[in-house]
Task: structure prediction
Amino acid sequence: MNIDIEVPEGLDPRLTALGWLVGSWEGTGNGTDVDGEDFQFEQRIQFWPGGGPYIYYLAQAYVLDADGKAGDMIDMETGFWRPKPDASLEVTLTNAAGWTEVHVGKIQVTRIDLRTDAVVRTESAEVEHSAGQRLYGKVEDDLMYALDRATTTHDLRPHMWARLKKM
Result:
């Protein structure tokens, strides 16, 4: 089996396992909000080396209107992805809606599985987010991901999923 993995020139060797993620990704996806209502969104995600043993991450999502045009921002998060020599991964994310998550997981070449280790919410958090899991993978040169979320009012269930192209 031949796996095509692009590693940017000059990337810190400690980040090689995440090299295929580095860059900007855009596309559309679907979601289900905390009330069970479906929505469509445009997603922009950036991964880039931050100067240390981590990849910096920024994700923004915009609701799509009936004509498929991006409108208001509905989600934004930023964080750091820290790969370990044993192919484990630590991810810290802060969401504009009022919570911070610590994820742990495993890198399996072009597939990354994450689950929350901790969630901390502000008093004014828009959703009482309590746990999550994520799957990221490279499929036909695209980045596909699925994000499942639990809240204090519902168990873990699909929240957002998308297919993004590298820009």
Summary: Residues 7 and 19 are 5 Å apart (CA to CA). The chain has a mean pLDDT of 92. The longest strand covers residues 70-83.
